[in-house]
């Protein structure tokens, strides 16, 4: 269960509007067949293997869910006009024209798992069928030339309870280099933040003492943008915002700040385009480049009481290397937590991961991660190894098999950590 | 240029090169029960006498709006086809078919062209784009320039076929085959409707 989830009890509560804060706290998992329908294109146009984006998918996102350099000719739907173009001449004595998608911009993604935890006592099931595990209903698209939106209703079954979330955001896409967002903001520091396998990155799930994690989404206002580098290759990208703080209570008194920036050397331009991209080889999963990035988050996390309020500073450095069929990436995240009357705690988490495309439909992956919740307590970091394979059974059906094994303190952690998990995942 | 016009141009070019004296037109309608479309079926004369040179002007297979245009492009053996990218996104062209030597042209930007020569009559390689898997097109390599591509209604017209007896064949991506014998008169048209199973 994602720690950032609202611990809901029933969907009915959401329908009644009792839990609007749920929208603040949902984790991120995205694969949006809405766009397949809009452009009549395959998942692999944008996805390395869904939900992980390939270079074009990132450029599509950076253009406000549009093809680079205009996509009016590429849309296969006929948008419904909400005012003719000529009404722009009449403004401010008329409403500026817009349009809505020509079809309901909805899509569904569902997941189920078979988990085999090791070392369970005899009284506990050795194999768990988690069907259904996770369902998402997406809505996403563009509203005229300058606005776009992305939202979802997410329902997750975990440990006998049902968690519900409904994050969304509205984006103003002025130019690729400057966009503004209002809604649920996501600021995960990992470079390929839409992971391929069920186990989330440790840098995304590392909790502060009052329960903050970098992998959640929080309500706020943000700006973001991207641009191509020299010769149309690589380029820069940034993302910054102010968000309502989260924590153990819903006080939300404070506002937090985050910023993230990266530079990509080589490969497809961050906002796409075809300039300088001629090559003798190609594949949707290839984009030879090296990207480095940095991330900082600063704010407060509510405690059970105001006195237990946590002052938090988090930073991260990222490196991402794509070369032919291989991807190597690594992230190191540091966290400093201060609570009045308690000793300062510093935490550190990092992972290194390699992926390799054996066939376009079969990807091998290995992740090594290290998590040290308190670097000063004399307890060694917990290290874990996760080998996995992801198979695209069809363009929109994925099977993932992962084995998770504790490396440090094996005998102490094996019951909680060691497992074999098969997940199927489809979107339509 | 749509597929039908391209085919007609090819036929004309071939005629000029081959230099037939008297010619007629073979035309008709192709039908196929339960077909979603009757377009993009190639109707061609099998083994016309003589030798036929490819046109000097390269036939063009365009990639526009993430689609191969035309969907099916028949060419005379020896023709060099220009693959043009007309989109603001990268495209690739490759074929897994051995008869076309399994070529892969890489990727190239908008406005640029990469070319391939198709030498083997009877070869009909599928064209794919490894950036956009939904894209599909075909080159149909033929021995002579007497061919046409059907429109949505299944209609076709092969002009300037020299007088004589011929075997008419069809190519379609479902690999349904049918042969028709036709006799082209000294002048005028001959109608040959073709019913595919």
Question: How widely separated are the two ends of chain B?
Answer: 30 Å
- Enumerate the spans of chain A where pLDDT stays under 50 for 5 or more consecutive residues: 1-29
Number of domains of chain A: 1
Mean pLDDT of chain A: 89
Largest interface: A-B, 28 and 20 residues
* Beta-strand residue fraction of chain B: 35-45%
Largest β sheet strand count, sense and barrel closure of chain A: 16 strands, antiparallel, barrel
SS element count, helices of chain B: 1
Shape of chain B: globular
Mean pLDDT of chain B: 89
Figure out the total of helices of chain A.
Answer: 5
Q: Report the helical percentage of chain B.
A: under 10%
Helix content of chain A: under 10%
Q: List segments of chain B where confidence is low: pLDDT < 50 over at least 5 consecutive residues.
A: 14-20
Beta strand count of chain B: 17
SS-based class of chain B: mainly beta
Strand content of chain A: over 45%
Summarize the helix and strand pattern of chain A as letters.
HHEEHEEEEEEEEHEEEEEEEEEEHE
Count of extended strands of chain A: 21
Tell me what you see in this structure.
- The complex is a heterodimer of chains A (428) and B (197).
- Chain A has one domain (5-109, 129-350).
- Chain A contains five helices and 21 strands.
- Chain A is mainly beta and 428 residues long.
- Helices cover 7% and strands 49% of the residues of chain A.
- Chain A has helices at residues 11-15, 33-39, 55-62, 202-205, 410-417, and strands spanning 47-49, 52-53, 80-81, 99-100, 106-117, 128-143, 147-158, 161-165, 168-175, 178-186, 217-228, 233-244, 255-268, 289-301, 310-323, 326-339, 345-359, 362-372, 382-394, 397-406, 419-427.
- Chain B is globular and about 50 Å long.
- In chain B, strand 14 and strand 15 form a beta hairpin.
- Chain B has one helix at 3-18; strands spanning 23-31, 42-46, 60-63, 68-69, 72-76, 79-85, 91-94, 104-108, 113-118, 126-128, 136-142, 147-149, 155-162, 164-171, 179-184, 189-191, 194-195.
- In chain B, 45% of the residues are buried.
- The interface between A and B is medium-sized, with 28 and 20 residues.
């Amino acid at each position: 269960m994602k720690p950032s989830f609202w611990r809901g009890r029933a969907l009915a509560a959401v329908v009644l509007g009792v839990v609007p804060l749920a929208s603040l706290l949902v984790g991120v998992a995205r694969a949006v067949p809405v766009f397949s329908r809009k452009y009549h294109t395959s998942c692999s146009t944008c996805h390395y293997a869904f939900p992980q984006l390939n270079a074009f998918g990132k450029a599509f996102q950076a253009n406000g869910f549009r093809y680079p350099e205009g996509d009016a000719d590429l849309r296969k739907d006929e948008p419904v006009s909400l005012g003719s173009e000529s009404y722009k001449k009449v403004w401010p004595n008329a409403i500026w024209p817009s349009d809505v998608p020509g079809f309901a911009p909805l899509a569904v993604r569902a997941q189920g798992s078979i988990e085999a935890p090791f070392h369970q006592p005899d009284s506990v099931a050795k194999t768990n069928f988690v069907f259904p595990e996770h369902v998402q209903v997406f809505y996403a698209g563009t509203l005229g030339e300058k606005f776009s939106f992305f939202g979802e209703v997410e329902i997750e079954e975990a440990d006998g309870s049902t968690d519900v979330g409904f994050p969304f955001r509205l984006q103003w896409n002025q130019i690729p280099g400057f966009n503004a967002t209002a809604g649920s903001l996501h600021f995960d520091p990992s470079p390929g933040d839409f992971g391929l396998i069920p186990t989330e990155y440790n840098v995304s799930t590392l909790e502060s003492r009052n329960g903050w994690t970098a992998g959640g989404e929080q309500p706020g206002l943000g700006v973001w943008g991207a641009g191509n580098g020299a010769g149309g290759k690589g380029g820069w990208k940034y993302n910054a915002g102010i968000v309502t703080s989260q924590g153990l209570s819903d006080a939300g008194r404070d506002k937090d700040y985050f910023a993230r920036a990266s530079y990509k050397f080589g490969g497809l331009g961050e906002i796409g385009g075809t300039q300088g991209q001629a090559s003798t080889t190609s594949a949707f999963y290839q984009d030879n480049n090296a990207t480095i990035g940095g991330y900082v988050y600063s704010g407060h996390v509510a405690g059970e009481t105001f006195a237990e309020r946590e002052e938090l500073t988090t930073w991260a450095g990222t490196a991402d290397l794509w070369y032919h069929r291989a991807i190597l990436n690594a992230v190191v995240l540091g966290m400093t937590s201060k609570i009045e009357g308690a000793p300062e705690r510093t935490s550190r988490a990092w992972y290194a991961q390699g992926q390799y495309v054996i066939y376009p439909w079969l990807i091998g992956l290995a992740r090594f991660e290290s998590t040290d919740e308190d670097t000063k307590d004399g307890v060694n970091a917990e290290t874990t190894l996760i080998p996995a394979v992801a198979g695209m059974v069809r363009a929109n059906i994925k099977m993932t098999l992962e084995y998770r094994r504790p490396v440090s303190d094996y005998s102490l952690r094996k019951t909680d950590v060691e497992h074999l998990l098969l997940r199927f995942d489809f979107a339509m | 240029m749509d597929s039908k016009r391209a085919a007609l141009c090819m036929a004309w070019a071939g005629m000029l090169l081959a230099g037939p004296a008297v010619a007629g037109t073979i035309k008709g309608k192709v039908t196929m029960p339960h077909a979603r479309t009757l377009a993009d079926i190639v109707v061609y004369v099998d083994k016309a006498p003589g030798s036929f040179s490819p046109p000097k002007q390269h036939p063009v297979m365009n990639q526009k709006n993430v689609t191969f245009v035309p969907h099916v492009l028949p060419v005379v053996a020896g023709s060099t086809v220009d693959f043009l990218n007309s989109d603001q996104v990268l495209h690739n062209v490759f074929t897994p078919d051995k008869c076309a030597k399994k070529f892969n042209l890489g990727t190239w930007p908008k406005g640029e062209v990469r070319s391939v020569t198709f030498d083997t009559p009877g070869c009909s390689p599928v064209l794919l784009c490894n950036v956009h898997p939904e894209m599909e097109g075909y080159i149909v390599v033929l021995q002579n320039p007497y061919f046409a591509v059907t429109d949505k209604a299944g209609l076709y017209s092969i002009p300037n076929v020299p007088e004589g007896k011929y075997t008419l064949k069809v190519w379609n991506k479902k690999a349904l085959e049918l042969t028709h014998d036709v006799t082209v008169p000294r002048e005028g048209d001959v109608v040959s409707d073709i019913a595919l199973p």
